[in-house]
TrEMBL record:
Positions of transmembrane segments: none
GO molecular function: ATP binding; ATP hydrolysis activity; DNA binding; DNA clamp loader activity
Protein known as: Replication factor C subunit 2
UniProt cross-references to InterPro entries, sorted A to Z: AAA+_ATPase (IPR003593), ATPase_AAA_core (IPR003959), DNA_pol3_clamp-load_cplx_C (IPR008921), DNA_Rep/Repair_Clamp_Loader (IPR050238), P-loop_NTPase (IPR027417), Rep_factorC_C (IPR013748), RFC_lid (IPR047854)
Residue ranges annotated for the AAA+ ATPase domain, each copy included: 38-170
Keywords: ATP-binding, DNA replication, Nucleotide-binding, Nucleus
Protein source organism: Malassezia restricta (strain ATCC 96810 / NBRC 103918 / CBS 7877) (Seborrheic dermatitis infection agent)
Gene designation per UniProt: RFC2
Length: 351
């Protein structure tokens, strides 16, 4: 694939560990491993898009060079290959193979690296089998497990790894990286649009770069000038539901507006159902993602200054249940309607 046709996420993936944004603790520790050529088993965990995969790939490139990486590094996505058969066959075969000749231009330590991305998707049996392989072939193979949820990795595996927590990127680091990419691509962008990109990506650098590339495609006919684009357009590009829609939906569930101290007016059960049904039907008809609506409703309700802690707790339980149902493939309009009726009951029955 040519450089021009690459997604920007891949084109601007860090080439060295010093280029990884924000994760200073991990960078400092791993930088020392470059000089000592000694590496423990590692476990990288944290939210998506925070640089976990980029970090280990950059480290491997600095240790072995791009050519030697082909024989010294095995990268597997555990969400696709997560069974015990893969651990016993592919991983074990690679782990016990002899180390190839070193590259004199790079440190080339006498071991190989196995990268297991999305390791929290591995079955418990596969993780148990992996534990034994990590122990048996540690002299010539190092493992790097990458996951979003460290609690899903069994204790015998985590105890054999040095753990590195990756935090969501702060706004200044994300802004600096996006500005660098925009300048490299000749894209003019205003501070307001940049701020909206960072806000909608919620600390996920991969998502914000993808949004930036989509924005560039949108303004390519205008000479790559996105400086006059409104933040609303950016929100639509990112799939964000406009706040007036969320506010209107919340008001049909008897949640008062942020900017008023008036109590919500109680409505009869029949009219409340009709209002909620019409609001949900409108959202579905407009094509908004029900999952995105749930996420934004959560933020709106939990940060609401006029709802009690008891009301927020009840709402949070129903929001969590709806999120799981949608992630499991539940029918969107039905799940959203059920959620909104439950939230209406939570807000009106505060005792």
């Amino acid at each position: 694939m040519s450089v021009e046709s690459q997604p920007w996420v891949e084109r601007y993936r860090p080439k060295t560990i010093d280029e990884v944004s924000s994760q200073q603790h991990a960078v400092n520790v791993l930088r020392r491993s470059l000089s000592s050529a000694n590496l423990p088993h590692m476990l990288f965990y944290g939210p998506p898009g925070t640089g976990k995969t980029s970090m280990i790939l950059a480290l491997a490139r600095q240790l072995f060079g791009p050519e030697l990486m082909r024989s010294r590094v095995l990268e597997l996505n555990a969400s696709d290959e997560r069974g015990i058969a893969v651990v016993r066959d592919k991983i074990k075969s690679f782990a016990r193979a002899a180390v190839s000749a070193p590259n004199p231009d790079y440190p080339s330590p006498p071991f190989k690296i196995v990268i297991l991305d999305e390791a929290d998707s591995m079955t418990q049996d596969a993780q148990s089998a992996l534990r034994r392989i990590m122990e048996q072939y540690s002299r010539i193979t190092r493992f790097c497990l990458i996951c979003n949820y460290v609690s899903r990795i069994i204790d015998p595996v985590t105890s054999r790894c040095s753990k590195f927590r990756f935090k969501p990127l702060d706004a200044s680091s994300a802004e600096a990286r996006l500005q660098y990419i925009a300048q490299a691509e000749g894209l003019r962008i205003s501070p307001e649009v940049l701020s909206m990109l960072i806000h909608t990506s919620d600390g996920d650098m991969r998502r914000s770069i993808t949004y930036l590339q989509s924005l560039a495609r949108l303004v390519s006919a205008r000479g790559n000038d996105a400086s006059l684009m409104s933040s609303t357009t950016v929100g639509e590009l990112a799939g964000i539901v406009p706040m007036p829609v969320i506010t209107s939906l919340a008001q049909t569930m008897a949640v008062p507006s942020y900017d008023t101290n008036d109590e919500a007016t109680p409505t009869a059960q029949g009219s409340a159902f009709d209002a909620v049904y019409d609001a949900v039907h409108h959202i579905v008809r407009e094509g908004y993602s029900s999952l995105q609506v749930v996420l934004q409703l959560h933020d709106y309700i939990i940060s609401h200054p006029m709802l009690s802690a008891r009301q927020k707790t009840k709402c949070a339980l129903h929001l969590g249940a709806a999120d799981k149902a949608l992630m499991d493939g539940g029918e969107e309009s039905l799940q959203l309607l059920t959620l909104c009726l439950s939230l209406h009951q939570d807000v009106t029955n505060s005792t």
